[in-house]
Design goal:
This protein has 2 helices and no strands. The chain is mainly alpha-helical. It binds zinc ion (ZN). Zinc ion binds next to loops.
């Protein structure tokens, strides 16, 4: 048989041309339509990531504001940092409510 791509004489039962590497017949299993399985867009995960980032930023902002507010009245140590933060957060929530 003759390779349809490069014209080289190859064996009749050859599946691919030994010279150019092209298949002698149409591929039996065709690639799935719509691109590779590894390149599918993952839109469903994006909103969750954004929510988590926003929550982290909000907590950080509240923590920084609480620290700056309470530093004037009491010294901040690792022991009471959480309590001071919670007190400041509670004050803010009471002010909002
Ligand atoms: Zn060939």
């Amino acid at each position: 048989m003759i390779c349809a791509h490069c014209g080289t004489a190859i064996a009749d039962k050859a599946l691919i041309c030994y010279r150019c590497g092209n298949a002698t017949t149409e591929p039996r299993v065709k690639p799935p339509a719509g691109g590779s399985l590894f390149e599918r867009p993952r839109r469903s995960r994006l909103p969750l990531v954004l929510v988590v980032i926003l929550i982290v930023l909000a907590v950080l902002a509240a923590w920084v504001l609480g620290v700056f507010e309470s530093q004037q009245s009491s010294g901040l140590t690792p022991d009471n940092a959480l309590r001071v933060f919670l007190d400041a957060l509670r004050d803010r929530l009471q002010r909002i409510a």
